[in-house]
Amino acid sequence: MQLSVKHLLGIRDLSRQDIQIILDTATQFKEVLQRPIKKVPSLRDVTIVNLFFENSTRTRISFELAEKRLSADSINFTASASSVSKGETLLDTVNNILSMKVDMVVMRHSASGAPHFLAKHIPAAIVNAGDGINEHPTQGLLDAFSMREKLGRLEGLKVAIIGDIMHSRVAMSNIYLLKKMGAEVMVAGPPTLIPKYIQEAFDIRVEYNLKKALQWCDVANVLRIQLERQNQVLFSSLREYSLAYGINKQILDSLDKKIVIMHPGPINRGVELDSDAADSAQSIILNQVENGVAVRMAVLYLLSGGREMTN
């Protein structure tokens, strides 16, 4: 099984078949992760550098664990502790790392398009671990994997993405992927947090009423309010936001069906999700974290050429 791309820069670049291959390969790796010995030698001679120019805990740890499970040699690089803080350019940094004979770069950057820039200039395979407000492809893939695992399909599924759509790279990757796989997509939230062009550009539904969105969907993927990316006041207060768009057990119990609750993390508890909803039986948030490792193993394995998997 071969992907049609050399890099994973975004879901936008993947075909439906590419997505299918990644999700199916992740299923096999999830089985590996259930074994007493969770390590396979698939990437034994591959060197991967984790290049994080932006703070990350979950994504970085998930990639590191995926690399260890595949027996890859990994190097961790954080911009704040590097020559970047002394003025070194992105290309200089990467060329210096590549001179150490690195095969693959996992990269997170605050500038949209930074991984695409690198892919044009260096020979190593690039995995986008989040670029600005553009995309976060492995999060989109693990969300889709988690939905498929829980509900058995993506085709025809009704998915509401709720919250700060304007600043969310997770929302973009989810929209691209779900549309390609035949799901119905709605975005919901305050008008100030939903881009005006989105309905027409992506042919998706837009809803400003939380209860209506939840009543419509099979899955609610709830996003974090990204205050660090907002350069103007887009709603009056977190309390006001929580009252209008916060999801709690009371709202979930008032629906006439059980829906699945997801969140890419970290959760602002008491803002977009109350603890009683986040920790309820309807939530698959911890499954998403677990599935992230299997999905990232699949991506790294396939981009490295997909050699022997489980010897």
UniProtKB/TrEMBL annotation:
L-aspartate binds at residues 86, 169, 224. Keywords: Pyrimidine biosynthesis, Transferase. Pathway: Pyrimidine metabolism; UMP biosynthesis via de novo pathway; (S)-dihydroorotate from bicarbonate: step 2/3. Gene3D superfamilies: Aspartate/ornithine carbamoyltransferase. GO terms for molecular function: aspartate carbamoyltransferase activity. Its EC number is 2.1.3.2. Residues 6-149 form the Aspartate/ornithine carbamoyltransferase carbamoyl-P binding domain. Carbamoyl phosphate binds at residues 58-59, 108, 136, 139, 265-266. It catalyses: carbamoyl phosphate + L-aspartate = N-carbamoyl-L-aspartate + phosphate + H(+). InterPro entries: Asp/Orn_carbamoyltranf_P-bd, Asp/Orn_carbamoylTrfase, Asp/Orn_carbamoylTrfase_sf, Asp_carbamoyltransf, Asp_carbamoyltransf_Asp/Orn-bd. Residues 155-303 form the Aspartate/ornithine carbamoyltransferase Asp/Orn-binding domain. Catalyzes the condensation of carbamoyl phosphate and aspartate to form carbamoyl aspartate and inorganic phosphate, the committed step in the de novo pyrimidine nucleotide biosynthesis pathway. Heterododecamer (2C3:3R2) of six catalytic PyrB chains organized as two trimers (C3), and six regulatory PyrI chains organized as three dimers (R2). NCBIfam families: asp_carb_tr, PRK00856.1. HAMAP family: Asp_carb_tr. Belongs to the aspartate/ornithine carbamoyltransferase superfamily. ATCase family. This is Aspartate carbamoyltransferase. It comes from Niastella soli. The gene is pyrB.
